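Side project, low priority. Logging it here so it doesn't get lost.
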Amino acid sequence: MTWLDWLIVVVPIVLLIWVSVYSRKYARGVVDFLAAGRIAGRYVMSVGDMAAALSVITLVAGAEQYYQTGFAVSFWGAVTAPVGVFMALTGYCLYRWRETRCLSMGQFLELRYGSKFFRVFCAVLRTVAEMVTNAIGPAIATNFFIYYLGLPHRITIMGINLPCYVIIVTLCLCLAMVFIWPSGRISLLITDCFQGLLSYPIFVIVVGYVILNFSWTDDIAPVMWNRVPGQSFMNPYDISQLRDFNIFALIVTLLGSVLNRAGWIGNDTSGTGRTPHEQKMAGVLGAWKNGFSYMMILLLAIVVIVFMTSPHFAHSGNKFKVSSTEIRQELSAKILDSVISDQAVRTKVMDEIHRIPETFTEKEWEQPLSQQKNPDTPYFNAVRNTLGDTPEARYQFQKYRSLYQQMMMPSVVSKIFPAGMFGLFCLLMIMLLISSDDSRIFNASSTLMQDVVLPLFKGRLPQEKHLLYLRLASVGVALFFLIVSIFFAQLDYINMFTTIMCAIWLGGAGPIMVFGLYSRFGNLTGAWCAIFFGSGFSMLGLIFQRNWAKSIYPVLEQWGTVETLNSFLETISAPFHPWIAWSMDPVKFPINSFEIYFISMVLSVGGYIAGSYLTYKPYNLERLLHRGAYADTPEVPAEPWTPRNIFSKLIGITPEYTRGDKIIAYSVFGYSIIYQIGIAFLMIVIWNAVSPWPKEWWTIKFYITSLLIPGIVGIISTVWFMIGGAYDTYRLFADLEKRSENPEDNGQVFQDNH
């Protein structure tokens, strides 16, 4: 990095640390620390959520996934848009959650299902799933910086040889603690909003640089179309042979987004809004808040695909002065240095890699690429064949392939970004690292304290001790993240790994939260059944995935049951071809994470309904939601249905909406439903049903809907949210200054408030 890059990185980070430390004066009570006093505005929540959600792992995982499957599948993802719009406009789950006034998920579960033990059990289950899932965030981010900055795997300090990975992970987690310790949710909300505001201009610069340096017609489009039939990167009607990230994965994602809308609710910004309506509007703004961020993820993935598979960059004579072959060799050498401890074996593997000829002769370019045969295939074959076919060798190959696919993005962009741009992107990734790590550590530690430790206290816990315990819990979670990051190997696609890990909780959580918020039907028996069947199946799937190559498959080989099981799997998956195709593989478990997640959700819903039906007793939902006779503030009278207001009520517009709120809601509906669904999806589907498009038309469509229109929207939303975020941050400081504290509002449940 040049001095300019260092200046770009250091100054904003120092400013953010100062803001975090300054916010400590506002954390006067538990509600301040956990929910920012419940006085946050819609823009500070929305911008902060964008920064917290858009992490380093998000960018790496996105590039990894798109590199394998392209963008054709995403066309069918439009069918999920109406569901997302409906949930945002109606405040699905979020509005009712804010009405409960619960400070944690566990507090809600104890109030709703009447069992302290169930509260603690679910809190432990959720926290374990959350911590293990999120613990790979620092690991992925650390690897990103090692490969992006070109750092060695080991450094010598005062004669001691130390792993660079451990040092960076530790620094990352210490930095996260700097943003948690002062004032909890207050410091997180403010600094996340600041980071979001600083990120918006960087998104614009990255997008602009890529557009200026990669030609759509000469570089991008030809590469996207150079695919075998059934694995198109552009034509959504030609994707039947894609595996893992396909139409079925979209269906599972859609089901999960509805059923598990409230799965992680509680210890995030979902309880920080000054009113339930303000909380709802923060969700409505979600359709606009991302601006250039998703466009940047898309273009970064395109850069990786184009640079690593286009003949224009196969040799070092291109404008970036580095070839895709050089990057593959350098990337392989760096990965093998961390995966294989035996120097002789590493040398042998690298010798084989160096024998691989430069790809993309004119004859080779005429052959379309596929998931099975592409420029990376010779590298995978060289490593796997050289290592051998022992269980240990299969495990090492898994680690090599995973790191190869994940670290390709930082390896490429580090070579093509100039000085200044290099520092800006590094700053962006550091901010995304901070905003995601601190939020995830805080969420997990809050769950532990509020739903595992707090229920153990018989009397009211003093605020001073409560705040201290919350801070200490965050330190404990950070240490857990450190240990897991060091010792836990991630062996699958990032999105697959996070799916199966989250399914340990989400596999059973959906019905107990959704039915709990909306139905008098569900009870404790049904809730236990949902957890047992849903989460239990996910846990079983995870065990098989983690131990397949090294333990389970070798045992099946010894028993001589591989062929029998293969025939069985192929038979039961045959009706669902081509989207589900199960067959025995010595390296990877046949049933992928999305499939395990789907089965677990079906089992959890069935278990919840059956268990609740057997022991049915209606629940007093109005008391939980502070409605009717239990309301302590005047309720806004419900507006009757009329022909004039039927549309407004269907999209969630209530008497609480101001004229500005209505404009935002109608704009979200117009963009998402009329444009994205009606024009950019349904019209194209109908047109292709009558007359299939040529590939040139799909090229134009992709350019307009993925780059041109989002670019225009991004410009508007960037200015809009920077102004709104700045104003809401100022207002938050003012409201925190004059807020009065209620010491009894700390998340404890006693008989008098049950």
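Brief comment: The chain is about 70% helix and 0% strand.
Revisit when time allows.
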